[in-house]
Amino acid sequence: MTSEARERSWADGKPIQYFRFTRGNVSWFLTNADRDQEYLGETWTSAAISRSAIRQGSDSAQLTIKVTLPSTQPVASNWRPYPPSEAVVLTIFVRHVGETDALAEWVGRVVAPKFSGPVLELSGEPSRTRNKRNGNVRLSQPGCDLVLYGLGHGQCNLNPEIVPLEAVVTNVAELTLSVTAAALATATRSLAGGMLEWIEIEEPDPEDPEAEPIEHPRSRPIAAHSWLSTTITLGPGDYLPAIGDTVTASTRPLYVEAVLTAVSGLTLSAAAFGTLPSGRLAGGFLSWVRALDGLVEFRSIRSHVGNQVTLDYGALDIAVGLQPRGYPGCAHSWSDCGYHANQLNYGGDLYMPAKSPFDGNPVW
Fold first, then answer.
1. DSSP H or E segment with residue 337
2. How far apart are CA 97 and CA 71, in angstroms?
3. If both were cysteines, with which of 129, 236, 288, 336 could 60 make a disulfide (CB 3.0 to 4.6 Å apart)?
């Protein structure tokens, strides 16, 4: 028989449940069998884990399931003492004893934990309920209501990472150290502070028939560039690209690479934080890779003064020597959008009248 056939039978069912928790690139595998199981190339650890009944219906509040397991299981560390900064996805499979196939009977995400001594109760919500939630309601206001760094049509589309751009050089001015290429005008923001890279090819000795061209990687910093301009000015260096060369121009990242030098509660100190104006990191976030399992953690920045930032809540691995990235925030104003050279994507109504024509006053 198969697991599917046993599911439909009246008396032949011998189900074993498999619980896979996934956060980022890390997964935990548990089963309610009386011994460890091998399935999907993984070892599923035997544990006292169970779930409540799976219901069908249109009311999302009634579709939540409860998963109970020992609070000593490693997966419980995702919610103790701080909540995870990204969703933990839960997939429940069922496979019957003696069968090789399994059925995915529930897919969703963990929305809330409840610790009761040695027992952890997780509330799970099926993934399909996300489609029933209200969409983003745009507001008519002078300020921008878009999510900072949100990507997509009509979104902020500010990319804080290094953004590379390929271009073909059409002109080089050695006296002014300027390079012109049409594609440079399509950069997402100013290339100033970024890097220009290209390959210089050294032709082989014509008297040596076995000689091959030698490729030399070259690079120079970009000293100046006006957004939407086809020309950049290069910084110090020994080489220049030639007309017809294919170059890669990269923007500078918006984030700063920091090394924590002091930690006092939720207040962190690092010299790199002081390289940005005070308040610039407020409303942004810190991110770092956990040494324990390689997961990426995020924490919102509440305030920024000099070389110190204050977080909304902590994390176990925040300590002196941690190397996080600090991503700037945004005041969602026209001037702040200009600071990031992203006014083309501004989401507010800049010229919205201050007085409402619908306030009941006949004289408007």
1. helix 334-339
2. 27
3. 129
How many CB atoms lie under 10 A from the CB of residue 273? 25
Look-up: residue for tokens 């496979």? 95
Q: How far, CA to CA in Å, does 140 sit from each of 134, 136, 149, 272?
A: 18, 13, 20, 37
d(CA 194, CA 215): 23
* Nearest Cα to Cα of residue 327 among 269, 270, 280, 267: 280
Phi and psi for 185 in degrees, rounded to 5? -75, -10
The first and second tokens of residue 187, run together, are 């950069």
233: pLDDT strictly greater than 70: yes
Please give the pLDDT value at position 230.
95
According to the model, what pLDDT value does residue 211 have? 76
Q: By percentage, how much of the chain surpasses pLDDT 70? A: 91
The C-alpha atoms of residue 277 and residue 329 are separated, in whole angstroms, by 12
Q: Are 138 and 145 in contact (CB under 8 A)?
A: yes
Closest alpha carbon to 55 in 95, 105, 21? 105
- Count of H helices and E strands in the chain? 2, 23
The alpha carbon of residue 120 and the mean position of all alpha carbons in its chain are separated, in whole angstroms, by 28
